[in-house]
Amino acid sequence: MERPQREAKTFCRLCGGHCGLSYSFDADGGIAKVQGDRTNPLTRGYACIKGLTLHEAHLSDRRLLWPLKRTPAGDFERIALEQAYDEIGERLRAIIAARGPDAVGCFRGTQSYLNPLAYALQPALLAAIGSHSFYSTMTIDQSAKWVTARRIGMWGAGLDPYELSDVFLLVGANPLVSLATANMAVQNPVKSIKEAKAAGKTLIVIDPRRSQTAEFADLHVQPIPGEDATLLAGLLRHILASGWEDRDFARQYVDGLESLRAAVEPFTPDYVAERTGVPAEMLETAARLFAEPYPDRRKRGFVTSGTGPSMGRHSNLSEHLIEAINIVCGRLAQPGDPVINPGVAMPRRPRRAEVVPPFREWESGWQDADGYGTLFGERMTATLPFSIGRDTPDGIHALIVDGGNPVNAIPESAKVSAAFDRLDLLVCIEPFLNETSRKADYILPPKMMLERAEITSPFLEVIFRAPYAQYAEAILPEPEGAELVDDWEVFWEIARRLDAPLALNGTPLDMARKPATDELIALLLEGAQVDFAAIRAAEGGRIFDVSPLHVEPGDGDAKFDLAPPDIVEELRELRAESAAGAFDLRLAVRRMRDVMNTAHHHLPTLEKRLTDNPLWAHPDDLASRGIAPGDRVRIVSANGAIEARAEADATLRAGVVSITHGWGGGAGVNVNALTSLGARDPINAMPVMTGYGVRLEPLVIDFDIGHQVRRVEC
Ligand SMILES: Nc1nc2c(c(=O)[nH]1)N[C@H]1C(S)=C(S)[C@@H](COP(=O)(O)OP(=O)(O)OC[C@H]3O[C@@H](n4cnc5c(=O)[nH]c(N)nc54)[C@H](O)[C@@H]3O)O[C@H]1N2
Ligand SMILES: Nc1nc2c(c(=O)[nH]1)N[C@H]1C(S)=C(S)[C@@H](COP(=O)(O)OP(=O)(O)OC[C@H]3O[C@@H](n4cnc5c(=O)[nH]c(N)nc54)[C@H](O)[C@@H]3O)O[C@H]1N2
Ligand code: SF4
Ligand SMILES: [Mo]
Predict the structure, then answer these.
(1) Pocket of ligand 1, candidates 110, 439, 454, 476: which has the most ligand atoms within 8 Å of its Cβ, to mutate?
(2) CATH tag for 143-356+557-573 (out of 3.30.300.30, 3.40.50.880, 3.40.228.10, 3.30.70.250)
(3) If DSSP codes are grouped into helix, strand and coil, which group holds residue 271?
């Protein structure tokens, strides 16, 4: 075999896995081989099919290679990049002059989270023009965590460290597929979970489906989806009734324990069993495994969650109860605990064992015309379709989308699509035509990740369970004849045209001279614990030898607010409501390993592996409805109907069906035709995306003609 001419290392940034990749190129510069980088100390050779086929996205014949402008006829024509910037700048200027800066919004999609310069400069542009209108996927995802952090308070030192933990309770999270679960070791998830089990750690998984992660669980609790708040209230009640709370911790750091105890009192094991389908003994076992103290030493470990509870009804209450369980059990990092990852690219900061007090910014700060405020400086994405085009001061008239496809991703697609049509100006930084970019006035196609120099994001490096960083050079040239942007450049170019100077890492940028990407990375890393030069030199990523850090005792006397009035009231409402609905099945969210949300479904390798997003249902639920695997079915919710191919899945709880979002742009179907923006949470406008009622209607019926049975598509 010919020896490869060149090898290069990089890392995948599609999801939080950050998998180290190693590429071999042949003499012509063609890609000879791609594999997970076995020498990468953090990701240890792991990579999924999405990472291993990244180059197909770069080489795709559907890729957009130069800036496009919509024509009056509705199609696109090429436009020179500078001309596009000039026109965008001019139109933004006019919109700001007529309507004020809040009329200009930005939307951060998943593919700009791990691009740290875009991550920093997109909100910097809005700050520079004075707009509040920053949106991201977070508020249609797990912003229940943000609401809870603000409402209950935060612990300055974080949860019990993963490494010191005896037990993990995962609620609606599947790190083996999603590599996204807070506080868990998600890099190389298969190896990590096996190591945790080998070390004797206990894993409890609450999931209506026997997920890939639940396969490893010591206890799998399989509830009806959408009922997490009830289940968690019951769990907390049992913990308190058994006296398993950490009383010393509560005395020092907790307000409202007795009110919360009273508020969860009606969630008896029998009530919870009836409503969630989880037998009382199983709930008690889960509570015992998690919370019963050891006789001889402190039990450690935490409850953590994914999209399951945060997309169901009462999502903010569910997350509040999750943190309340951690708090009453004292499962927070203690003085003297090691800080496993003190950080690399971020400045060093002490971790203190103290409460950062609650702070309801959505009540005290800026609010839109419907009374929705902001959360960690962001407006709520599910309010965007209502704000677009309206004449109130918060109305959105121009939007810049980076690395996202909100028209597909936001619930109630028809409403979202119609709203986006009302925009005066839509700019997408996007390599493909999708449901959103098709509506754009300007599409600015970006360099894709193998073509750009990048560093693991300082903003998100805390997810690594080691002081790790990686810098990757561009390893593929841009396609011949292409005119592409680095995402950050768009924000810089627009800011310059609006005379709105940007700042990065606290330093004003020189707006007269365009910086190089590496200059900006260097600026971003000013104050870092490891020099940019050292990170850049450590090809393929390194766990750095940063000096050890330990949790310090705190000095504040702030307390967690376990039972604010709105939480007590929501618990009362929850207990009073009737769970029964007009539908006989519940739909649960779930992700597929081979695709990332709406992206890259059309790549050749993925098209061979996946044709669509099937409707998964328990075999008994299919059989009892006369549906055979492979049949097409209509899925009907209170808000709409879609059609999909049925697939039997015995890992689901009976009575639960499941289908992945993000499809329907080409193949498959968009689940967000079933969801609704009607019942949004009053704080973060979170819609309900899991656990809602549906029914199935067969689209194939059997005709019995004499002795022949014919299957006919309706
Ligand atoms: N019903 C339902 N709806 C959901 C969910 C659900 O579970 N159920 N999940 C929700 C969640 S958690 C999320 S995060 C959202 C996702 O919402 P979005 O972030 O809006 O959707 P993505 O498909 O992740 O968007 C990524 C986009 O980036 C583009 N892209 C790829 N590479 C690059 C690049 O190098 N640079 C740039 N600039 N762009 C690139 C892709 O082509 C794609 O269009 O969807 C939400 N919607
Ligand atoms: N392969 C792949 N990885 C991804 C993504 C992707 O699209 N594909 N998307 C990325 C994004 S944007 C995100 S936000 C993360 C999400 O990361 P996760 O939240 O871990 O996402 P899932 O893998 O869908 O796992 C959610 C689990 O919740 C369960 N569930 C559904 N409804 C309920 C419920 O009502 N209650 C409970 N308790 N459980 C429920 C589902 O059965 C599923 O196993 O993943 C990221 N990683
Ligand atoms: S998409 Fe796959 S290869 Fe890429 S970081 Fe995530 S798990 Fe790793
Ligand atoms: Mo997400």
Answers:
(1) 110
(2) 3.40.228.10
(3) helix
